[in-house]
Design brief:
By secondary structure, this protein is mostly helical. The chain is 55% helix and 5% strand. The protein has a six-stranded mixed sheet with strand order 1-6-2-5-4-3, sandwiched between helices. The protein has a three-stranded antiparallel sheet with strand order 7-9-8. The chain starts with a helix and ends in an 8-residue tail after the last helix.
Amino acid sequence: MRFDLASFLIGFVIAAVVALLMYRFRAVLARLRGSAQARAGSTRQFLSNSSDKRYSEEFTRFANRYHLAGDKVPLSEVYVEPRFIPAIEPVELDETTKIGSIFHVIPQVRDLPAVYSPYNINTLTISDLRLGERRLVFLGLPGAGKSTALAIMALYANSQVDLRTLDSLAEQVQLDEDKDLNETERAERARQRKDQQDRALAQLRVTQDREADAKAQKKIIERDPVDFKTLMPILVHLRDIDLTPEAYGGKSDAAGKAPLKTLDPAEPLVKAITRRFSVVAANTIPRLVYSRLAAGRCLVMLDGFDEIGSAYWPEKLAWLDQFLAMYPENFVIITGPIKGYDPLVNAGFTPLFVRPWADQDFEALVERWAAAWPRMGGTQRNRVPAPDEKIVKRVMTNNRGRTPLDVTLKAWAAFAGDEQQIGRLGAYDYYVRSQLDDFDRQRSALDLIAAETLDQGLAPIRKDRIIDLITPLLTGENGKPLVNIGEFVDKLVGKNGLFLESSGSTYLFRHPLIAGYLGAEAMTNAPSTRIEEIAQKPIWELALPFMAGMIPMDAAVTERLGTPPDLLFNNWFEIAHWLPEAPADATWRNGIINRLQTLLLSPSQYPAIRERALAALITSRHPNIIFVMRQALESPDPMVRRLGCVGLGALGDAEAIKDLTGMLNDKDPDVQLAAGLALGSLNNERAMDMMMDGFLNGEEGLRRAIAESFAAIPNGGHELLSEGIHSQDMYLRRASVFGLSRIKAPWALALLYRAMLEDSEWYVRSAADMAFRQAEKPEGVGPVSHPDAESLPWLIAWAATKGEGVPAGPNARQVLIHALQEGDPLHRAAAALTIAYLGHVGGLKPLYNALRDKDENVRGTVYEALGTLQMRLGKPLPAVQ
């Protein structure tokens, strides 16, 4: 190449000029560079904030629609805060350091919850879940509100609904107390308040060393409360967790499956989230979700373990195990079945039962629906009139023993004025009709799909299988289709609220009970042999109560009663769920009631079976049950009398007031407690008058029972407690402390605080001290997993009396077996319950042997333990001959 001197000189001059200019304006260029970097940083921050905001907005819309009426009204407008009951509480033989419960007299039969739903039993709120274990499983019957509970938690974490927490109570107390004071008086009150707090702290320090020792013995690790609002909420249904290798670019093996060994277990979760969001959000949020999961800053909620079919459990559990191992710091909640939840507990989840709703919960739900109805029934612009007050009151009544889903559909049908049948069947019928536009053909097709779904254990059904099922229905006599079958199916499964799409072009009914109702319709013309067949399939329990209101069930009842019973007599007790819908002239109704009555009243019976018999009788809603309960009150057995009182309270019949008032003077303290609590569950003026007499003049235990019942009656009961804490009667003040401890409100906390510091009697101050400490920092109130045998103080102490120790690991459970076989009655009973609470299948044979224990109370406890194991395992255990 030839050197060009002219071009070289021109380039040299230009470079020199540019260099000179850059040198002279170097300060300006520095400022411009800094500005550009700042803008780039701001852009990155904006993009991050934009992703957060987009996720929050999309998630709020999703969570607000995560209920059956989500297309009509946001959940945030009609929700009722859920409450929870620990499935198991470790046995403690030393109860001196906490307030005990009087509700041991109320049997909590989880699969027949109507017997305890009206009672103000101890529960956990969403706020309480901040403490304790970070892996929870919500258990409950279908329709009990498990899924909705997750959605409410999600909205709370996303700051879309407000739930009262104890963190803000102190400030609220001060505002309530000081609102009418001038500045000088406020300053004096602040000084007095500080003095009270100093005195309280001094008093609390006295017990700190004792509490620390107790924690050390129990190996309790204190955790700071979780602030759910600092966590990113993630809510997915397990049907959307796609684990097929093809979804991630892999191939299935010959069996149609392949392990996802190299897959990040968060990927199926992220994939499930994004398929429910908009396209824009789906493309921007994955990185955000991955980073939050890695930082342990997510509230992961997995719905529907009990809805996907047990055949899918192993693969979902394997994925879940990998996910928890890789992202252990996140708060994870899953929903599960009321029976057979053992795999979830073994996976590290602490079980909680969703509390069945009481009258106040149903009333709150109906009130919120009535308030939202003008827009729900019409549009934002063209609203319909509010429901007539008489209709609202009708919907509020006769709901005991029903589920939140039942009453939601009842309100929906009543407010729409389109009930074509009465009762529960009419509510479900309206919902299905409201989702269809080609009624006759679509309804028949739905029935076929529902029956197939139930036969397959609720497993998702493929679109091609749906086409196969309904093609005969849509084919004319000439063999030609009457409609375009593909379009018909697309419209059926995709354009209404009855189905939800799952992965791989599969579908599930939006709710298992909808499948149950439609499956029952499919059986209206089925032969008796088919009815007998499905009566033995557990999954068809979703449909059998509906079937009882549609067809004669004599064949199914005969089949059930002819089957040898299991340990818990489930073949009898489950029929109780059929009775509310059965016609009054059904020939089999009275026979079932007579059997249940015999189990309750017979002179010799295990307590667990008596309690289940009572729960089944209450569930039946039979009009003659009140007479059975009155018979129970005449029994010489105090347990039967106690259960009779509980049953009368659960029925809610005002005619029972006289019967219960007489039992307030029973010679057995537990019967007195049950009578007082039962009066409280009736919630009417006459019952309040009778309770007031017991509150003022009864035995100490009865006073406490009534006080805690008052806590569940805001209109009148709360005022009586606030007056009782100032009474001259020391025992009345102490009872009022227990009642106030059940009310999580600022004014109640303030009264407890003052009683703790200022009451003249130590007997009152000590109760207020424990109540206040449990309210201010609810240690032990949050969900706590059951410690293994090696950590149980009572077992360690018992082994020491034998000159032995409790080894670490699985061998510690063998010491439990020794305690069951060789301990005194108290320790034998404690060992039996603990074996059940730990789900120790190896303890089954020793437990059955212990049914021959010479102590009657131990035998009863052992039977209860076996029943608990059967519920947890979800498999029938042999009946006792």
